[in-house]
Amino acid sequence: MATITRAEVNVTSPGRNFVTLRLTDADGTTGLGDATLNGRELAVASYLADHLIPLLEGREADNIEDTWQYLYRGAYWRRGPVTMAAIAAVDVALWDIKAKRAKVPLYQLLGGQSRIGALAYGHASGREIPQILDSVREHLELGYKAIRIQSGIPGLGSVYGVAASAAGGGERYDYEPARRGIAGGERLAPVEEAWDTRAYLRHIPTVFEAVRAEFGPDLPLLHDGHHRMTPREAASLGKALEPYDLFWLEDCTPAEDQAALRYVRSQTTTPIAIGEIFNTVYDYQTLITERLIDYIRSAVTHTGGITHLNKIADFAAIYGIKTGFHGPTDISPVGQAAALHLDIALHNFGIQEYMKHSAATLEVFDTGYTFTDGLLHPGDRMGLGVELNDDLAAKHPYDPAYLPVNRLLDGTMHDW
Questions:
Q1: Which residue, 191, 234, 291, 385, could crosslink 379 as a Cys pair with Cβ 3.0–4.6 Å?
Q2: Spatial contact of 367 and 340, defined as CB atoms under 8 Å apart
């Protein structure tokens, strides 16, 4: 056993902001953890630097479970995205160290491989149906075997999930919705977008009708409602999409009120995925025990790390619920790798969200995971399989950005 002797927080912005924790033990073994919280990055960096790091130095690096409980139960203030992202970073870094000391890929410590690769879904989008069809073709050419479909809505401007442009090589650019600061010292504030739920509910079924007509019944299709519907509206959309056999309908309604999903579940057979903004098992308790969802959507980065998310997945498995971990580019390559080690090991794996990070990001983070023929694999490097280049990271200073806010056409604040 070796104690933790050093802890460092790195904030870098190679195209978007990432927060990374590096722990070092007495033998010089290092581990990385992702602490990125989109639009609130510095809050987690401060939580780590000011409140957790002083508690870590001198603790045994091997005692991962005890450290997790110490940071969670030992603090009077529990849960929440900032706290759980900070705990997740510590937890994943300790797992990285433990696997490196054992000289194995991390998934070997989680029970080894349950599959040869993790099915990944890509993100096709467009302002109009022809653009969406082109985007699906692009993703099929890139090797994706499952695709999320997001669409512009007639009469609205920017809509969540719709890519603004395409990058070189035919790969659609990350639709990263966080907006950057404005030069000249102007006040930075979230962009305000307009929303019309009735227009959305009328349009989306026509999009899936067109996609199914073009690509047939076998391609797994997914859609994200992004919390914008009431339970009744969510049930209506789920019913309308039943003829198009979705793999899942994600975040159809805000799920803080877990009981609201009882109505949705009673009205539609469309599979439901929820949880990317959840932080603990308690956010899922009713949803899992009453089988109100089909997939848990948490990210390792935001849900207390490998230790806690592994337990949530095991809890879900008892009720026949599968995983579909959050994994766009607001999860760093460190967080993505951590998810892949769980994906490859868990029996109740369902699917993994995947967006390739920018070239600049992949220069800062040296990754060992692979995407081949629609499947992701964490690779066979020791530990997580990701290393951070501090010199390159330093060339990309923090750049403030906020996610948008959403208003109905009459100006009422709405869910984004």
A1: 385
A2: no
The Cα 292–Cα 374 span in angstroms is 29
Is 354 catalytic? The answer is no
User: Is the CA virtual torsion 411, 151, 326, 346 positive or negative?
Assistant: positive
Of the candidates 160, 175, 244, 354, the residue annotated as catalytic is 160
Q: Is the pLDDT of residue 246 over 90?
A: yes
Identify whether 347 is a catalytic site residue: no
Measured at the CA of 304, the angle between CA 303 and CA 308, to 5 degrees, comes to: 95
Cβ partners under 8 Å of residue 279, min gap 6: 79, 80, 81, 83, 84, 298, 302, 303, 304
CB atoms inside a 10 Å sphere around CB 16: 23
Residue 121 belongs to what H/E stretch?
A: strand 118-126
Residue 159 is predicted with a pLDDT of 87
Nearest to 353, CA basis, from 234, 273, 256, 253? 273
183 pLDDT exceeds 90? no
**Which domains are delineated in the chain?**
4-105 (3.30.390.10), 110-384+401-414 (3.20.20.120)
pTM of the model: 0.94
Residue 411: name the closest of 195, 186, 88 by CA: 195
Element (H, E) at 250: strand 248-250
Residues 6+ apart with CB under 8 A from 132: 124, 125, 126, 149, 151, 207, 210, 211
Catalytic residue among 139, 226, 326, 396: 226
Per-position DSSP letters for 9-63, written without gaps between them: EEEE-SSS-EEEEEEEETTS-EEEEE---TT-HHHHHHIIIIIIHHHHTTSBTT-
